[in-house]
Amino acid sequence: MSSMQFGIFTVGDVTHNPVDGVTISEHERIKNTVEIAKKAEEVGLDVFATGEHHNPPFVPSSPTTTLAYIGAQTEKIILSTSTTLITTNDPVKLAEDYATLQHLVDGRMDLMLGRGNTAPVYPWFGYDGSKAVELTIEHYQLLRRLWEEDVVTWEGKFRTPLQSFTATPRPLDGVAPFVWHGSIRTPEVAELAAYYGDGYFANNIFWPKEHYIRLINFYRQRYAHYGHGEPQQAVVGLGGQFFMRKNSQDAVKEFRPYFDVAPVYGHGPSLEEFSAQTPLTVGSPQQFIEKTLTFADFFGDYQRQLFLVDHAGLPQKVVLEQLDLLGEVLPTLRAEFDARRPADVPDAPTHAARVAARDAANATEGAEQVSA
Amino acid sequence: MSRVVVVSAGVSDASSSTLLAQQISAAIRRSDPSVSIETVELRPFAHDVIDASVTGFVSPRLQHVHDLLVHADGVVAVTPIYKASYTGLFKAFFDAIEQDVLVGKTVLLAATGGTARHSLALDYAMRPLFAYLQAVVVPTGVFASPHDWGSEGAGALTSRVERAVRELLSLVQGSGSGRSASDEIDLFSETMLSISDPLRQQD
């Protein structure tokens, strides 16, 4: 695996296909998602991440179930989320579900935490949506303790206290899953990621880049402030999306009817305006490579690049073709990003590397104790 | 040098809102030629404004207008009154800009309407919008109906414009409201502090 990870993330929406008029069933969507993840591994991608939603038209309400099922049918790809709802999930259950997944797939996983975006979801899980940021902070602080401390006694504002509680299973090799924090607007989330030395993922697929540059720079500065390293050593992930064909006119012609009515893109700026001002590339593989390489100019060298591929109601066959095309440009992307990468920028996190780092730190500490 | 940005939501060509905006700008210049005035007609930004409202996506040209407001000391907001209130374009524009752009800024409200019976829209529709945005609205609002453009009302309109402009410039060039939007991220809010100090949140 190269120093930077490339992958895909899915929202898990069931979107009407405006071209053939078909809306697939939830069953098909769930099975398609598994097929997409396996295809991602086949074309050489490093990461597959699924969203978590609890309302139609989205299907992925149970990410660890889906990821474990995919994990059983894959060998190398890192399984992740985009995002796991830290607000409405009980941190006790999150600690246990994701530790279980970590064992099942031998550490080949991490997770990205997010708040979710719609207020009505919160009361379905017993929470108050007006407290989203406070919930994020309290739940995450508890989640960390449940993974790092064998016995936890805890009291907070949003859930019942814990007395001498041990979350089971304990994390694999005694190293908690790596955590990314996803946010598109909240500085508190960037601060949380910085404080714990976690990753920060800016899903910059909608808004102009200036907005994200500010948040990422804030995270980088705070990461350094808390003593985890230099600002350029903070762990950053970015979103993006594309539609490729060998010939750029073919890409535009084929994607436009999907774009024009898509739930998130449609009825607003034109495909051309949207492409000019967001990470979206609709064009040839060469155009896609050129645009993707600019991300590091804007945001600094980073660790993880995820693309949204199964969007806008595209049929499964086309999504799989898109993954083939992504696989074809992957060696170039890896080589180009590596070529520009300064030596002091850390590699993307993996379980094995984190275990090794922990062991090295323990050895140093042990040596110091012996010499003292 | 003070900076005033005039935002006008008139839509027809030879719009009376544009005319009123021009009168207000002229009165500002007469009162203090050193004031820099930028005028933004919203009509050419109509697509950008609606795109922003359906996708949350602010185009570079709309961002430029937004930035003009960020750097303004005072704002003149002018809209036609349609169906008892400001126009959809006017509201959608202020929906599209960042929440805190007008915090503490002095704003002169002006509107035009088909009859004088619309004049209170200044106070029951526009004023609450700018109160919500935490702007400081000058006491005199300027409303122009067809009567005001005629020979009988013109003197009264001119004197209202001049009074409102005096109020605007007095506030803009005085010591201000003491409030302004900060672009800085607040590191010392209770929520921020609770991240590195979990016990703090439990109070």
TrEMBL record, chain A:
Location of the Luciferase-like domain: 4-297
Top-rank taxon: Bacteria
Keywords: Monooxygenase, Oxidoreductase
Biased composition (Low complexity): 346-364
Region of interest (Disordered), ranges: 342-372
Gene3D superfamilies reported in the protein's UniProt record: Luciferase-like domain
Oxidoreductase is among the record's keywords: yes
SUPFAM superfamilies the record matches: Bacterial luciferase-like
Protein name as annotated: LLM class flavin-dependent oxidoreductase
UniProt source species: Aeromicrobium alkaliterrae
TrEMBL record, chain B:
Location of the NADPH-dependent FMN reductase-like domain: 3-149
Cited InterPro entries: CE1759_FMN_reduct, Flavoprotein-like_sf, FMN_Rdtase-like_dom, NAD(P)H-dep_FMN_reductase
This protein's record includes keyword Transmembrane helix: no
UniProt keyword annotations, A-Z: Flavoprotein, FMN, Oxidoreductase
Pfam families found in the cross-reference section: FMN_red (PF03358)
NCBIfam families to which the protein is assigned, alphabetical: LLM_duo_CE1759 (TIGR04037)
Name this protein carries in UniProt: NAD(P)H-dependent oxidoreductase
